[in-house]
Specification:
The structure is a single chain. With 143 residues, this protein is of the alpha+beta class. It has helices at 2-19, 27-34, and strands at 43-44, 65-71, 76-77, 80-86, 92-94, 97-111, 125-140. The strands form two sheets. Strands 3, 5, 6 and 7 form a four-stranded antiparallel beta sheet that branches. A three-stranded antiparallel beta sheet has the order 1-4-2, with no helix packed on it. The relative contact order is 0.20.
């Protein structure tokens, strides 16, 4: 019984030391952690997408596309994702074909839901794969 109480006390002390808060990572540190996965055409942490990296999309072809802006919760980096999808999904574009969004995957970071910091005292983040639209094409309909 005494051993159990000491163990619980140890856990409470360990958790209280961690719960003071982990050091948040800066935008530069998060960008570095994402590495080559940070794609300026699709990502921004402040809604100001880099004008040097415009996102090309088809506004006038058989299958018209449009820009989509998604805002992710604070626990994700980057918070703002820009991608392309069909203006009208499933529109007939040729015999037996329809407009379909072309899918791609990008890496983003998610803050781990833990009270424990990494070995250097920083918040812990993990890499996730996120499906986005990369364009719109006229493709064979699939059942």
């Amino acid at each position: 019984m005494l051993l159990e109480r000491l163990f619980v006390l140890f856990l409470l002390v360990a958790v209280s030391d961690q719960s003071e808060g982990c050091v948040p990572l800066s935008v530069d540190q998060l960008t570095q952690q994402l590495g080559n996965g940070f794609i300026a055409q699709h990502m921004s942490n402040d809604q100001n997408f880099d004008s040097n990296h415009p996102l090309q999309y088809n506004q006038h072809g058989i299958c018209k596309s449009k820009l989509v802006f998604d805002q992710l919760p604070d626990s994700y980096f980057p918070r703002f994702i820009r991608h392309v999808k069909c203006d009208s999904e499933e529109d007939s574009c040729m015999t037996g074909k329809s407009c379909q969004t072309v899918e791609a995957y990008i890496n983003i970071l998610e803050k781990k839901a833990t009270i424990f910091c990494d070995d250097d005292g920083y918040e812990q983040w993990t890499t996730l794969s996120l499906k986005i639209g990369a364009g719109c094409e006229c493709a064979v309909e699939t059942p």
